[in-house]
Each structure stands twice: as structure tokens, then as C-alpha cells.
Design a protein that fits this description.
alpha+beta, 4-stranded antiparallel β-sheet, 7 helices, 39% helix
Length: 206
């Protein structure tokens, strides 16, 4: 006991600190409490902004999908590749330098868009799922245009990276670190929001 007391007194003289006063000092406690509370608060604010961003981008993608589908509806996209279809009707700013009316804004990376144009035999067999991103069409492949007066389904998918992953550690590829991945998909070894626009219609008769 005497040894501990001597050591403490020696430490006080060496550091110039009165440990009794130091332990009893409550100055700065409000700042520490604010830091503790601000961490989950900032995470919540980031999650709110990200949810709004996802909904906003999803609506924009759905709108553009409907507009771009008119080229299929009227058979204007015949003999086009998927890359040409994207650069002409979906996302023009990277290929032409300008955002054409009815196309995606510069907030979208045109090179990441995936398009599928299908022609099911009837409405019952039409697929509106977003799982085609697991095996997307090659951008250089030619679109198999649906026949006149037949059912057509246009699907456009876009991987939107998660922003709140920076706060939760999930920014590292494939890692979650306890973060909820509900509503996300694993794409290119990273968790992402897979946005999708879909439009089903019947092609105009010849």
C-alpha cells in the first residue's frame, strides 16, 4: 500500500497532475457525450439521404426506361447493339457530351448500365425480375428485336454503390461488419443497390 502511495505521489510530481482533481473534473463531459451521440445520429442522417437518393434515381431510371422503350415499340432500334441503344436512347452524355431530353443525367455512369430486351410468347411468361444482371447481355451484341404485334419487355438495371457503407465499414468489398444488407445485392464482389426500370408492352403491328 505504501509503495502504491509513493508511486502515485512520484507520478504526480513528475507529471504535475493531481489525480484526485483530475478524476473529479467534469469539464468537457458535454463534448464527449455529444461525440458519443453524434455517431449514430450522423449514421441515421446518412441513411435518410441514401434512401432518398435511391428512390430518386429509381424513379428517373423508370421514366427513362419508358421513354427508351418507344424505340422498341416502333421498331426504331432494329439492328442496334445494346451499347448503341444505351448511347442513343438511355444515357447519351458520355458518348455525345450532352444530356439528350428523356435520357439519364450525368449522375449515372453510362458504362454501368445493363439492358435486356425480351420477347416472351405471352403476358404470363413475361419476366420483370432484375436477376438478369447476374448474366448481362454483352454491350456489343445485337438486339434481338421483338416481332411486330408481339409482347416485349424492356429492363434496364443500374448498380448504385452504397454511401452509408463508409460509416459502417462495408466500403470494403464483400464485407458487411454487422451492417444490414437488406435490399442490397452482391455485384462485382461488393454490396450495392441494384436499381431497375422495367416496361412491358405490345409492339405496334406492321
Amino acid at each position: 500500500m505504501r509503495t502504491k502511495r509513493l508511486w502515485r505521489c512520484g507520478a504526480q510530481r513528475l507529471l504535475g497532475v493531481d489525480f484526485r482533481r483530475f478524476c473529479g473534473d467534469r469539464g468537457g463531459s458535454a463534448a464527449i457525450e455529444f461525440v458519443i451521440v453524434s455517431i449514430p445520429l450522423l449514421g441515421l442522417i446518412a441513411a435518410i439521404f441514401e434512401a432518398g437518393l435511391v428512390y430518386f434515381r429509381s424513379q428517373q431510371l423508370q421514366y427513362v426506361t419508358q421513354i427508351a422503350s418507344r424505340a422498341v415499340l416502333t421498331h426504331s432500334a432494329g439492328n442496334m447493339t445494346y451499347r448503341q441503344f444505351i448511347d442513343t436512347y438511355v444515357c447519351t452524355w458520355q458518348s455525345s457530351g450532352t444530356v439528350a431530353p428523356g435520357t439519364l443525367s450525368t449522375a449515372f455512369d453510362c458504362s454501368k448500365l445493363m439492358v435486356d430486351i425480351g420477347s416472351p410468347t405471352d403476358w404470363a411468361s413475361a419476366s420483370t425480375a432484375n436477376d438478369f444482371y447476374t448474366n448481362p447481355n454483352s454491350p456489343g451484341s445485337t438486339i434481338a428485336m421483338p416481332d411486330y404485334d408481339s409482347v416485349a419487355v424492356v429492363r434496364i438495371a443500374y448498380p448504385l454503390p452504397t454511401a452509408i457503407a463508409v460509416l459502417t465499414g462495408g466500403v470494403l468489398k464483400g464485407m458487411t461488419l454487422g451492417r444490414s444488407t437488406a435490399g442490397l445485392v452482391s455485384f462485382n464482389e461488393a454490396w450495392t443497390h441494384m436499381l431497375m426500370g422495367v416496361y412491358a408492352f405490345k409492339v405496334e403491328p406492321k
